[in-house]
User: Fold NADH:ubiquinone reductase (non-electrogenic) from Aquibium pacificus.
Amino acid sequence: MLRLDADAAAPVPAIERASARVDRAIGRKPRIVIIGGGFGGLNAAIELRKAPVEVALVDRRNHHLFQPLLYQVATAGLSPAQIATPIRRILSGQKNATVYMETVQSIDPRARTVTTCTRTLSYDVLVLATGARHAYFGHDGWEAFAPGLKTIGDATALRARILTAFEKAEVGDRGAERQRLMTFVVVGGGPTGVEMAGAIAELARKALASDFRNIDIAETRIVLVEAGDRVLPSFPAGLSQAAQAQLQALGVIVRLGDAVAAMDEEGVTLHSGERIQAATKVWAAGVMASPAADWIGAAADRAGRVMVSADLSIPGHPEIFAIGDTANVRGPDGRPVPGVAPAAKQMGRDVARRIIAGLRGRRVPPFAYRDDGNLATIGRKAAVADFGRIRLSGTFAWLAWSFAHLWFLIGFRNRIVVFLDWAWAYATFDRSARLIVERPEQPQ
Amino acid sequence: MLRLDADAAAPVPAIERASARVDRAIGRKPRIVIIGGGFGGLNAAIELRKAPVEVALVDRRNHHLFQPLLYQVATAGLSPAQIATPIRRILSGQKNATVYMETVQSIDPRARTVTTCTRTLSYDVLVLATGARHAYFGHDGWEAFAPGLKTIGDATALRARILTAFEKAEVGDRGAERQRLMTFVVVGGGPTGVEMAGAIAELARKALASDFRNIDIAETRIVLVEAGDRVLPSFPAGLSQAAQAQLQALGVIVRLGDAVAAMDEEGVTLHSGERIQAATKVWAAGVMASPAADWIGAAADRAGRVMVSADLSIPGHPEIFAIGDTANVRGPDGRPVPGVAPAAKQMGRDVARRIIAGLRGRRVPPFAYRDDGNLATIGRKAAVADFGRIRLSGTFAWLAWSFAHLWFLIGFRNRIVVFLDWAWAYATFDRSARLIVERPEQPQ
Assistant:
């Protein structure tokens, strides 16, 4: 494992070297290839909008996704298009940027090329911003039973599972099978797990409450399983307790200090020996970085994240940066930078500024994460917010969460439409997107 | 083939008999089973809301779909949830109605039972409202190349195909393959075909115009193939010409008097011998009724529609009704009732009123279709409208179309959201739902 403290103390003039190479390429602008159109990659591209460079952004999907609200798609509160925008729409007016919807096959760091299915792109500077997928810690077979939540496809598939479970319970007979269909296990007590558990509880107890005739929606059981001794371990202990109390007020059963030992179609077995019969399981227990480290043969941590220097470049490759969930980053204080959207955005902008500074022969201090606060929502008027000295829970935290998420939703139009959807849901308890789509969506 | 004129002259007192049987079932309310939650079935259920009956509505999907706007989902203008509402949400407050999301396996007209995967429902009155699917007239293999447009899944799959074609053209090289990727063939010049051709043209020339760097969107070719001698054959000839002129103004190439002779992954060959290389093909050339006639062993026409009497019941089975696209219906004037949403709605309400009248021992005159006008849209400020004496084309027809479709969209909330989306699209030429979803949506 690499030690980063030494790098942090004496930052390598990474970009100066990269740009020196660039300057030799007389007669053309430096080519910046960014892989990944998430928060990190997209913000890097946008920050380069006035720079004298050519930007190529490669993503295998056509849309940027506002992942913090993905759980609302999975629980029928929002439609996919409300939190996803075509990357080329966002960069439409940025003349120095080209978007390629392509899957990266390989990277040759010596030739400085990225190869996709159809072409080889050469780069002067490469930005790896490929994000993370859920990890099952050696139990990959569990994915079929307990899908995770990272893409629009994940969310609509999970939405179909959750809604179909209630539909099957309605047509089935009273008894154990009905109870199994109406039991939901969420694995992992981090922000995604807490949000999913709260949102399923609200979906069942409010939006669906009066729509069924045979089942009693009050019999819905939602179990949140967390291996640690509290939910939201990245928050102060007091807010963890507040979050747990708010979950329990919604009827969520919280199992702490226990973990999944076995899983099958019928349910889960915990380490404590408890067996929970549950038709629907949701995985929110861990993520693994994309294989960016393998592509370039770089050192990675156990979660697959590329080890980077204090300037976010890869040791030995000052022209390659890794940002967001792809990178293992420590601040100047040695603390790890969390895998959250604001950190990815800040890294994207930081790398872009480094590239611009390098072109001008200037130095930039090491990357430092600015923590503007931590928010997690549980449900209607239920959330926790940690702004350092100011810690909120309940209605005020929920208002702060709502405004923050609306504000950062890309696209003015989406802000308005999501606001109206939330206002409607708040006034009526209704959910706008309760669709079970039956036919596979086939990419061509 | 049955002749219906005799029936029309002397309507059988169908419901009186059905209700007489019902009255003997002392101590319980008559059971009305409705199969299908489209315009016909749903309106039948709603019209029965105050009747002393038990309504069971069976549909294999969980949502009612506003099919007239489905082409806007396929062309990224609207999100699925904006035109689809859970059936149990719509019937939530109707205490005499139960919704079953189930697939019908068989019907036993003698035992008067409907069997699904999980249960057998007995009925006193059965309403078949199962709609239609696209038909390929003996060329079922063409479905893989040229999908039709009947469900949300159809629409999102088609949307992915259309958007992916442009993405592939952008990353590919100039030449024949790029032209093939940017060519779209719509088969069938009825309302759906005209709407699809116009909407693809607007999507390409307006919404996508400034988002690509390598391809020239103006090279997009959209070909509408119609076997007859004019588009919109169900409209007056003058409006067909107006529609064709509006299509051509949008750049759509209209091929009349020609039909598809062969089709493969690469393109289509017409009867005239013309070969069109086209990556994306859309089928809008014909529909086939669902197999409701087979279920009950009833006589059907060539399109699979059940032959019904003037009271919409099936000859020999006064307790079974068929409505909407499932039924071959002629009005008292002998003219066939068209397969459009208003006709299905009217039949649904008519059957419900017949059932109620039958319970009270009253007779009801034969079903008569009230034609409130015919509308088809081509694009922005481009449409045709036939209100009998008043015929419109262009901006006024488009306004009439917009108001009519908004008005009939089920759900006040959807009306507002769709209106805002249209207003946004009108002001900005943008499309809100340009998503390519990569992962199959798996029903559980």
